[in-house]
Structure formats: C-alpha cells, structure tokens
Amino acid sequence: MKQISILTTFFLWLMCLGGEASVSVAQAGQRPIELSSRASTPGATVVLNGKGFGSFKSTQVNRVTVNGVPALVQRWEADVIEVKVPFKATSGFVEVLIGKKKLFAGFMTVVVPRIEAITPTEGERGTTLQITGQHFGLSAGARDPNTMFGVNDVVVGGVVVRPKRWKDDKIELEIPPNAVSGDVVVRLASSDPLPDGSCCAPVEHVVSNAVSLKLIPSVRVDPISGPVGTKVVLFGQGFGDAKELMDDAVLIGGRPVTIAQWKDDVIVFHVPLNAESGPLVLKHQGRERVLAQFTVHVPRVISMSPAGAPIGTLLRINGEHFGFYSESGSTPYNFTDFNTGGNRVEIGGVPAVIYRWNNDRIDVWVPFSVKTGKVVIYRNANRPNIGGLCCAEQGTQATEAGDFTLVTPIIESYEPRTAGLDATVTIKGRGFGTFLKTAEHADLGLNQKSYKRRSDVEITEPGEHATVISNVSRTEVLFNGTAALVQSWTDEEIVVKVPHRNLYGIGKKGEFFDNLATGPLVVRRGSWDLLPDGTCCSPKKWVTFEAGPFTIEAKGLPDPSYWDDDRPEERAGQ
Questions:
Q1: 91/109 Cα distance (integer angstroms)
Q2: φ, ψ for residue 127 (rounded to 5)?
Q3: Dihedrals φ, ψ of 388, to 5°?
Q4: Contact by Cβ (8 Å): 251, 276
Q5: H/E element holding 98?
Q6: What pLDDT was estimated at residue 301?
Q7: pLDDT at position 4, please?
Q8: Residues 539, 545, 548, CA angle at the centre, nearest 5°?
Q9: How far apart are CA 483 and CA 460, in angstroms?
C-alpha cells in the first residue's frame, strides 16, 4: 500500500507540471481518453474521444468538469463527448463523471486572448483594422448574436464589432462609423451550466488586454486622378478655417499644389503643371497624412473628324483624359463658378467655340475666322509659390489632335433656273459640308432675348447688328433673301424646295415687299468667333456663295375662286 501511495504522488506531481506523457493512476485501469485540444479558451468546444461513456441519462448523472468547474455538455455518446470550456475554469484536469464513476481525460491549460499589435494604431472610420495576437479561437462562433452560448466579438472605442475574418492569431474588421477613439479589446463569449447542470447561465466574456486606437476624421478625395489643371476637392473636418501655417500644404508625389480654397470642411486645389503620380498628402499642424494615391494622366487623342470642312462645322475629337472644361475656379463644384481659365481648343491658331467638353470627347464649332493648321487642346494649369500661394507660373499643357484643312464651298451648277412654288431645285458643287441639324441656335443669347419685347426683328438680310435674329440656322439656301426648305444636303449636292414667301409678300413693321419673285439664289454657312477676352461669342457671321439668278414662277398658287366661296361645306353633298 505504501508503494502505491508513493507512485500515485509521483504521477500527480508530473501531471501538475503539465507533462504531455503524464498518466493518472485511474487511467492505469481505464481506456485512454483523447482531448481534441490540450489548451483552450473559455467558451471553446472541446471533444473527448474514448470508450465506455455509456448513454446520457441526466445532467445530474453525466457531467464533465475542468479543474473542478462543471462544463456545459453539448453532446454525449458512448464514444464521444463535446463540452464547452466553462467561463470560470482554470488550468487543471478534465474529468468525466458518470454517477459515482470518475474517468480522467488529462490535463488542460486554459488560455486567454492576448493582443500583441493592431494596425493601424491611428486611422479613419470605415478602414480595415488588423489585430494580431494569440488565443483568439478558431472562429467568432455562431453568427446569431442572440444564441444562448454568445458570440465572440471585438469592442472598438465602445462599439461592438462583428469582424470580417477571424483566426486564432489574426482578426480583421472594419472600423464602424459610430466608433470613437479608445481601447480595442477581444471578447470571447462563454456560457456555463446552471447549478443543476442544465443550460444555461447568462453569457459572460473573457476579455483580452486593451490596446489604444486613435480615430481621425475621414477625408473624401474627389477625384483621385486627372490631367494637370484638374480641380481636386478634399471633403472632411478639422482642416481649420484658413491655412494657418506656412507648412500647411497638400502634396502630390511630393510636390506642393496651389490652394484655391481652405476651409474647415473643404480644401480645393488644382493639379499643378509639374505634377507626377504619387501619394496625395495633407500636411496640417505639423502632421502628414496620406489620403490617396493620385494618378496624373496625360491627355491623349484617339481620333478627330472631319479633317477638312467649311466654317460652322462641328469638329469632334475623341480620346481620353481631357479633364473638364470649367474647373479652374475655387469653389468645390464646377457649375457654381463655371471658370474655364485657359482651357480651350485652337484650329490653326484661332480659338474654336466649345460645344461639348467631356473627359473622353470634345466637340467644337469651327469658327468664322478659322485657318488651315493644327488642332491643339490646351489645359490651363499653374505652379504654386512658396506656401502653396498662387502662382509662380501660369501656363498650359498642349495636346495636338491633328491637322485641319479649311474647305471653301464651290457651286458648279443649279437646275432649274425658274420654277413654281414647291418645285425642287438641285445645286451641285463641292465643299458644302454637312447640314447642321442641332437644336442649338445660332444666336447663343436667344433664350434670354426671347423674353424681351423686340421692335427690330428683321426678316430680310440682318446685317451686323448684334440684336438682329432673323435666322437661327447656320446652313441655308436663300431665294432672293428668303430661306428655302432643305430636302437634302451633302458635301456635293443640295436639294431645296422653292419657298412661298417671295410671291405672297414679306414685310415688317412699317414696310412690306409684295413681289420678290426674281433675285439671287444663295448658299451660305454661318459661324462665330470668340471675343477677345475668350468668352463667347461675336455676332454670327456668314460665308455666302451665289449660284446665280432665279425666278419664282406663279405656279402652284391656290385657285382664286377658292377665296370667293366662304361656305364650301354646304355643297359638300351635292
């Protein structure tokens, strides 16, 4: 008996030391029980594999303890038992109790979660936070937060977060928008059985050590790419009401930009002439913060059409990274100030009239004073002075789109030379260009002027007076000063109908012309030039080509007797 007592003491001492090869005295007469894990966190599920467990009878008869603390039994079969490591358990022996029978399953070390580092230690809400450490468990547990066993989670600045990824040594989560600066802790949920062994006591959490996280206001950058001259806006908080320090700045690729506006919640600047792709950095009150990676694009032309045309033609340039037209102002929104700066397109050195300017397409009207030459797109930009003030240099970035040839229309023939009302007349030649079917009127201020009472509206040749709006077309055929209805218009042939007005009479206040049957047949195209200050536009100007004389015959007129019969419906049935 004395030898057995000494042997028992020796084995118990080995087991207390945590030796993996230790064996209990009771196990000398029982089949071995394998634990799925020799080290577990509270709340983790541990599986016991062995023989002779029998069937489950009740929570009073069938029990499992960890260092004497009852564990919650989740599954009990003759050869396998699953239990949850209890919240109050400490390292010690795992025992299976079947009535008065006691089976030893070995020694278990109860571990707690520990955070070693978080990345970043300072960040914005909505960014990904990575937590590294040990003993976090293999998963966050059940997805339902109302489960009786609880759900492992992370608390960030007082806000409970359900992580996106969970491993035993690494957790990743998104910092919630309602979090505040504070501690980050990992919590492992656990639920112990009630005193009678049934489920379940209220859920409790084992909490890791705390690591401090500082949250800073998020900053939205719009856009994060563009050519030189692009307006970039930083939307955020805490910038200050003005740029207070000389060192306060915005950098792209390490180079300062010109600050157009600096307020507490918004900063507006433009991509400078010498910009290169790189990190977009905000320097404020001695701290540097990388907001985004900014890509500086170079405009590129893919195609231009047509390569040759008369004035008034819509010239289309397709490509990429042209930027936007009206982004040279200091407000956050381009439409607020509509400042075009030096953004423009020149044809043969003459500024064209901008019709549409998108990032991948620019359309311009060929101006009246256009010359044959290169088509060049200019982007306005600058270089900042010290401290980000404007400007050490004002300049442009030029992109060639191709060569343009000015075409002069030539009339070769027209038939017939006399005809009645609504007869068709065919004009042949070359260089007529395309017929303009756009709804944009020739007089760009017509929409404002139309609301004013006018006494100077001309129907005949308008002259050069700025307020005359006799024509809103820019491609037309005139019979003795009166426009005809165009049936078709190609670069080499125009077909029109003889108008009625010349025989019916034309007039205005105080004047009337009752017969304009004979006169010149004219083809003309209209366009404008930009004003000297770069704004739009001069009065419409015309290039006119006379085909020759034309006489409108008194054919196709209504039967004069039609006007003498004022009640034709009375004889409709006769």
A1: 4
A2: -85, 165
A3: 80, 15
A4: no
A5: strand 92-98
A6: 97
A7: 40
A8: 140
A9: 10
Residue 226 has a pLDDT of: 96
Locate 268 and state its tokens: 């507006």
Is-contact 331 261, C-beta < 8 A?
yes
Question: pLDDT value at position 21?
Answer: 39
Query: Residue 298, Cβ neighbours under 10 Å: how many?
Result: 10
Q: Give residue 145's pLDDT band: very low, low, confident or very high (50, 70, 90).
A: low
pLDDT tens column, 475-515:
999 999 888 999 999 999 999 999 988 888 877 777 787 78
Give, as one character, the DSSP assignment of residue 85.
P
Is 563 in a helix, a strand, or coil? helix
Residue 232's DSSP bridge partners are 269
> Which residues is 477 bridged to in the sheet?
523
Question: How far, rounded to the nearest angstrom, does the alpha carbon of residue 395 sit from its chain's CA centroid?
Answer: 29
Residue type, position 396, single letter: T
Classify 337 as helix, strand or coil.
helix
Q: Do 251 and 384 meet the contact criterion of CB atoms below 8 Å apart?
A: no
**Amino acid letter, 43:** G
- For 480-497, the DSSP string reads TTEEPEEEEE-SSEEEEE
Tally of CA atoms within 13 A in the half-sphere of 190 that contains its CB: 27
Secondary element (H or E) of residue 233: strand 231-235
Estimate to the nearest angstrom the gap between the alpha carbon of 297 and the chain centroid.
Answer: 17
